[in-house]
Amino acid sequence: MRVAVVNATPASVQPATDGLAEGFPEAVAWHLMDDRLVAEADAAGGMTPALMRRMLSLIDYAVRGGADAVLLSCSMYGPAAKLARRLYDVPVTGSDEAMFADVACRRPGTVLVLGSLESAAADSARRLQDVADGVEVRAVAAPGAAAAAAAHDWPDLTDALARAAAPTLDEVDLVLLGQYSISAVHAELGERLGVPVLSPPLAAATALRKALA
Predict the structure, then answer these.
(1) Which InterPro entries match (predicted)?
(2) Which of 2.130.10.10, 3.40.50.850, 3.40.50.1860, 3.40.190.10 would CATH assign to domain 97-198?
C-alpha cells in the first residue's frame, strides 16, 4: 500500500513517516511537498481559494500517481481533505481528523491540547471543540518545544511538554499533541505524565489502515 503524504513544511515529514511505521507498517510513505503553503496562508490571513486549489492539485497528483490513500500533514488544510473525499475514491484524511474522532468516541471530561506555539494550540483546541460536544478543551503552549523539535532533541522536547502540562495535569483525562512536529515523543510523554497522550500522525495512520483493510 502506498500512502501519499502531502506536506506543507519539512518538519512534518519524519513524524508522518514514524506514524505510518507504527500504525500502518505495511504502508510505503510517498512524500509530496509545497513548503510555501503555510507561509503564504499566514501572509494572506488564512487559506485562500488559490491555496486550496494548490493543495487539491497535489492531492490530484497523488491519486493519479497511484496512491492508495492520501494524508495531509498540515492541519490548516483540513477543509481540502473534506472536499477531496467528494472527488476521489481513495481515502483522504486531514492531519488530526482521526485523533479528534478518537476523542469524540472516548468522551473524556477534560482534554489538554499541547502545542509548540499558542496559535497552534488554540487552533487545534478550537477545531476539536467543534466536534467533541460536552468535552472541556484546554490549550497550552510549551515554551522551548519548537526549538527542541527542530533540533530533534527528544529529551528536551519531552521535558518542555511535561512542564507545560504539569500545572493542569490533575484536572485532565487526556492529552493531545496538536502538531506533527512535536509528536515524536508521545510514548515517552505518556509515561512521564501518567495519562493517555494521543499522537495525530499515529491516529491518522491507524485510521487509514482500517479504511484500506
Answers:
(1) Asp/Glu/hydantoin_racemase, Iso_Racemase_Enz_sf
(2) 3.40.50.1860
How far are the Cα atoms of 51, 58, 67, 123 from residue 64, in angstroms, in the given order? 20, 10, 7, 32
**CATH T-level assignment (fold) for domain 2-95+203-211:** Rossmann fold (3.40.50)
Cα–Cα distance for residue pair 90/69, rounded to 1 Å? 5
CA 3: distance to chain centroid?
A: 16
3-state DSSP assignment of residue 67: coil
Q: How confident is the model at residue 122 (pLDDT cuts 50, 70, 90)?
A: confident
143 in Cβ contact with 161 (< 8 Å): no
Asked if residues 96 and 124 have their Cβ atoms less than 8 Å apart, the reply is: yes
Cell for 148? 527542541
Q: CA torsion, points 166, 138, 7, 149, in degrees to nearest 10? A: -20
pLDDT in tens, 195-209: 999 999 999 999 999
Compute the chain's Rg from CA coordinates. Answer: 16
Pick from 113, 133, 136, 132: nearest CA to 123:
113
Which amino acid, one-letter code, is at 205?
A: A
Relative to beta strand 136-141, strand 110-115 is parallel
